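Hi U.,

Before I forget, here's the chain from the pilot set. I'm dumping it here mostly so it's searchable later in email.
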Amino acid sequence: MVSDRLPEDELALPPGAPPDVDAKLVAALERVGQALRVQMWDMAKQHGVSPTQLQVLLRLAGDPPARRRIGVLAAELDVTHPTLSDAVAVLRRKGLVHRDSGSRKAALSLSPRGQALAAELTDWDHRTRHQLADLPTADKRATLRLLLDLIAGLHSRGAITVARMCVTCRFFRRDAHPDPARPHHCALVDAPLGTGELRIDCAEHESRVA
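Structure:
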């Protein structure tokens, strides 16, 4: 079997080459993002929903009630309030979503049909995860740490509005333990964390910024 991975010497820049690794990383991330968008579109079309509606269904399936509101969902999905409202209105007409009460700020929830559809949609990114499965675990952990730091930096500069990750949480203690397998610490649960255990979207997240 021929590996698709580039040898380390091919990843290195030749002497005198411009230091454009950052630009190459941005281009690579854009390609991955494009692949993920295509996968989401494909899954959405198969089930008769839009990509935004797909994301709403998945959010409602996993988020706590406090985060199942139109304003919160709009911020987390980085879309306008009217766009999110339109998506929810369509899902309600299809009988997939309903409000828990008559208030405009009431939490949304999935109907039984919505829950069944959300369960089918959870595998929308299976092609990417299948590709990742064959890559070395150490490389994936290092990449995860790099991406979390990148997202945290973009969040601090306002480029990303919502980032409920360990690395942006006030309970997170980076490299607090000598154990290389679990070097970090979560003060909320008072437990060490390995890089692979760091969360991307934590319900107990509390921002460092007051």
